[in-house]
Amino acid sequence: MLGICRGRRKFLAASLTVLFVPAVTWIYLFAGSFEDGKPVSLSPLESQPHSPRYTASSQRERESLEVRVREVEEENRVLRKQLSLAQSRGPAHHRGNHSKTYSMEEGTGDSESLRAGIVAGNSSECGQQPAVEKCETIHVAIVCAGYNASRDVVTLVKSVLFHRRNPLHFHLIADAIAKQILATLFQTWMVPAVRIDFYDADELKSEVSWIPNKHYSGIYGLMKLVLTKTLPSNLERVIVLDTDITFATDIAELWAVFHKFKGQQVLGLVENQSDWYLGNLWKNHRPWPALGRGYNTGVILLLLDKLRKMKWEQMWRLTAERELMSMLSTSLADQDIFNAVIKQNPFLVYQLPCFWNVQLSDHTRSEQCYRDVSDLKVIHWNSPKKLRVKNKHVEFFRNLYLTFLEYDGNLLRRELFGCPSEADVNSENLQKQLSELDEDDLCYEFRRERFTVHRTHLYFLHYEYEPASDNTDVTLVAQLSMDRLQMLEAICKHWEGPISLALYLSDAEAQQFLRYAQGSEVLMSRHNVGYHIVYKEGQFYPVNLLRNVAMKHISTPYMFLSDIDFLPMYGLYEYLRKSVIQLDLANTKKALIVPAFETLRYRLSFPKSKAELLSMLDMGTLFTFRYHVWTKGHAPTNFAKWRTATTPYRVEWEADFEPYVVVRKDCPEYDRRFVGFGWNKVAHIMELDAQEYEFTVLPNAYMIHMPHAPSFDITKFRSNKQYRICLKTLKEEFQQDMSRHYGFAALKYLTAENNS
């Protein structure tokens, strides 16, 4: 701190020098301009050549003196600029105490300064009043619509959370799709001191739908114009961000810039870093009116209270109506209208330094910004090409973006010590449940997993499907991890109906999956597959949580509860739709069993019919599933009867029965206490039996398990004695819970277990 203040004293001395030298010069000139107590003009235009006092020598002296004055003024201007640059490039520890205050980099607020350039200031720890209090809430507004934008928002939020030291309040203007995705994500993310509010973007469409827009963002690209009406009336200021933004600093530094607004300045913007608004990109290029290069609206500081008093709604509407008479449509959505308003009212804008919005489009001039500024703040991928934009430094910026894209979001669940958080019922309940567990229990980790909240990103890829109108539609439900990714294409080829998948991945693996899916013609051609990412946390594979996530997000009345290692027979989707009608599944509690078989061959000529399957069964190419290691799991299916069956037949529940079934979507969930390997499906089938489901085997349906390396969880089960002990304990506790819940009828489960 002492060194910092010494540096400040040096800076103060230099500043005084800058002010003192011209002052002394002007005093000297002022004194030398009097003769006999009368002032003498320094300007040659005001000199009187015919005056007897006038001589050629005195004229030359005065001209020489004027030249010297201008030289001194120029030297001081250069010195001031150097001092300013020295400040902005000062060492990192000069940026202030983040727990107390964030100063801002000065911008300019008038049109002359806009064209003249940007002067960067610096934060100070010596004698500066706090600009952002330690626990002051920072408000951020983002417009988000659709599946892809929801993914982009997550990366933006990660970059903000990584650097932040203040509570955050996100105001998300979202359509129904984005709201479903992001509401679940933030609810399961459980980041302290972060509040989320949603505003229905679909209700705002009528406010801007009258504006023709050619921008790829569509109608949602115009919604920043109506934030003064949309956001709460008591919200005074907000930072507005595009979804393709990446932060490289604490957002509080940007929030602090509000304190620099003066007079009627209500918009904080960075100058546009392309020649778009100059109208010289191509022949007959005719952009909307703008002040100079115009401003980019990827990052906006809005003083909402003042904007409302200025009647912002009326201001931008009148401007848009007037310009559309000649322009016919917007090319850059809201940005065109913002610039047209600023062109007429330049006093509204406070120009932010360029590093608050480094724009990486194909025709950008952003290099002139970061060539001069060593401490970049915000990266803006404002090109439709995004990471594929043409820029010689794009690799540097891409790596910065990928850092947050693949960063483990669970690490951002850190508390802001000293800042009280709003009461969160879910968080409080979780803490209460965990506190009731005995940490000395040898099975503590198993029990704890039941209450772990896993961050969940629904519909990671575009999903578009309307269930069949005859109410017979069936969704295949499964779960997987990264090592089973290769099964996806094969399943899509075998099952043409809708699919709901829960994938257990890390943040980095999620991006690998995205690249894999986007590179697959098979997967990209299917829009009826819902991919739901459940992010890794803890040491166990939460198999039943994954199943529940996939089950919960289906849009059909029925579901086929499968596993990712199985390929359904060709035509099974249509066969099941007919079966649900034939067996009146809508009005009866039935579980339709699809018999399971397996092969030990990685290359299999998949049977096209039941007759072909029976032939392969007789030849030893196929086997009934797990007949050699876990006979009880599927023995009640009665494969001997199935060989000759032509009509559905009923079977009774037996201990350890775990068939793959088709049920209504309202069937009970899987029990989360079972994780990893063992009893996860068995417990669910037991629950169905307790609820008096009737098990019916389908005579012309089948599925085949494909070979794969043993999972990590089955390896732990086989090698770890404590794992097996804990699984046995959880089984007993589950059976006791069944007895308490279903009474006398559930006693058979205890008896069956003892006899097995």
Automatic annotation (TrEMBL):
The gene is Large1. Keywords: Glycoprotein, Glycosyltransferase, Golgi apparatus, Membrane, Multifunctional enzyme, Signal-anchor, Transferase, Transmembrane, Transmembrane helix. It is a single-pass type II membrane protein. Pathway: Protein modification; protein glycosylation. It catalyses: 3-O-[beta-D-GlcA-(1->3)-beta-D-Xyl-(1->4)-Rib-ol-P-Rib-ol-P-3-beta-D-GalNAc-(1->3)-beta-D-GlcNAc-(1->4)-(O-6-P-alpha-D-Man)]-Thr-[protein] + UDP-alpha-D-xylose = 3-O-[alpha-D-Xyl-(1->3)-beta-D-GlcA-(1->4)-beta-D-Xyl-(1->4)-Rib-ol-P-Rib-ol-P-3-beta-D-GalNAc-(1->3)-beta-D-GlcNAc-(1->4)-(O-6-P-alpha-D-Man)]-Thr-[protein] + UDP + H(+); 3-O-{(1->[3)-alpha-D-Xyl-(1->3)-beta-D-GlcA-(1->](n)-4)-beta-D-Xyl-(1->4)-Rib-ol-P-Rib-ol-P-3-beta-D-GalNAc-(1->3)-beta-D-GlcNAc-(1->4)-O-6-P-alpha-D-Man}-L-Thr-[protein] + UDP-alpha-D-glucuronate = 3-O-{beta-D-GlcA-(1->[3)-alpha-D-Xyl-(1->3)-beta-D-GlcA-(1->](n)-4)-beta-D-Xyl-(1->4)-Rib-ol-P-Rib-ol-P-3-beta-D-GalNAc-(1->3)-beta-D-GlcNAc-(1->4)-O-6-P-alpha-D-Man}-L-Thr-[protein] + UDP + H(+); 3-O-{beta-D-GlcA-(1->[3)-alpha-D-Xyl-(1->3)-beta-D-GlcA-(1->](n)-4)-beta-D-Xyl-(1->4)-Rib-ol-P-Rib-ol-P-3-beta-D-GalNAc-(1->3)-beta-D-GlcNAc-(1->4)-O-6-P-alpha-D-Man}-L-Thr-[protein] + UDP-alpha-D-xylose = 3-O-{(1->[3)-alpha-D-Xyl-(1->3)-beta-D-GlcA-(1->](n+1)-4)-beta-D-Xyl-(1->4)-Rib-ol-P-Rib-ol-P-3-beta-D-GalNAc-(1->3)-beta-D-GlcNAc-(1->4)-O-6-P-alpha-D-Man}-L-Thr-[protein] + UDP + H(+). In the N-terminal section; belongs to the glycosyltransferase 8 family. In the C-terminal section; belongs to the glycosyltransferase 49 family. It is found in: Golgi apparatus membrane. It comes from Cnemophilus loriae. GO terms for molecular function: glucuronosyltransferase activity; xylosyltransferase activity. The chain crosses the membrane at residues 12-31. The lineage of its organism: Eukaryota, Metazoa, Chordata, Craniata, Vertebrata. Residues 42-62, 83-109 are annotated as: Disordered. InterPro entries: Glyco_trans_8, Nucleotide-diphossugar_trans, Xyl/GlcA_transferase. GO terms for cellular component: Golgi membrane. Its main location: Golgi. Residues 44-58 have a biased composition (Polar residues). GO terms for biological process: protein O-linked glycosylation via mannose. This is LARG1 glucuronyltransferase.
